[in-house]
Amino acid sequence: MSLHVDVTGKGKPLVMLHGWGMHGGFWSDSAARLARHFQVHCVDLPGHGASDPLDEFTLDNVVGHIAAQFDRAVSVCGWSLGGQVALHWAMLEPDKVERMILVTSTPCFAERNDWPYGLPQETLLQFAADLENELIGTLRRFIGLQVRGSERERELLAELRKQLSSRNKPDINALRGGLGILRVSDLRSVLPKIMQPSLVIAGERDKLCPPQASNFMAMSLPNAQRVLIKGAAHAPFISHCEEFIGYVKDFMNEKQA
Known about the structure:
The chain has helices at 28-34, 59-67, 81-92, 121-133, 135-147, 153-164, 172-184, 211-220, 236-239, 241-252, and strands at 5-8, 13-17, 39-43, 74-79, 97-103, 198-203, 224-229. By secondary structure, the chain is α/β, with parallel strands linked by helices. Strands 1-3-2-4-5-6-7 form a seven-stranded mixed sheet, sandwiched between helices. Helix 1 (28-34) packs across helix 10 and helix 4 packs antiparallel against helix 7.
């Protein structure tokens, strides 16, 4: 399968992975600014944007196809579902992933008896059911959840919806597989084994991956730091781009101990 990757800039390689149902173009503004300092690789996950679909959209398969694009160690920035892809990649290939930036992500998207910081299973099952009847409408409603409570919520909603329509609609099997990952994946137990320096970026008003989930992730990863972007919901790299860029630049330029 062919994986679409937009590459801009020079310097340390930074791979950027989007969230469920989105595409690499959502990074466009922040990627353009980061490309002044780094070589930025904005990936369309399999079955999204301009990338071919996979027969089976699983974390193993997604990581395998992304990793095959790079013959040197990289830093990885993962947003939401892209954060879980980044964590899985770092666990499978610790020599390939030097650093991680985990943006409004979580080790476990679904609520469980011992995990109150996830979405109710009923909500994810409803998204799965709606997807079968109205793909684009379901994605637009999901975007509405992403911006809820954010500063400049209406403006941000319009921007995200514009980005959604700027590339091909995602493959239905990729969306089904991604929702399956959101429902069943639980990476809490592997976090202490992931040793790469990590920056966890939380949105103060995030309804999908609440700050408590980011706190847990930052405390469980052995070499992590956490920042909270006030007034931001699930897409701080768009709503609070300057602040986001500053945190990423500082982290990327840290000297490794």
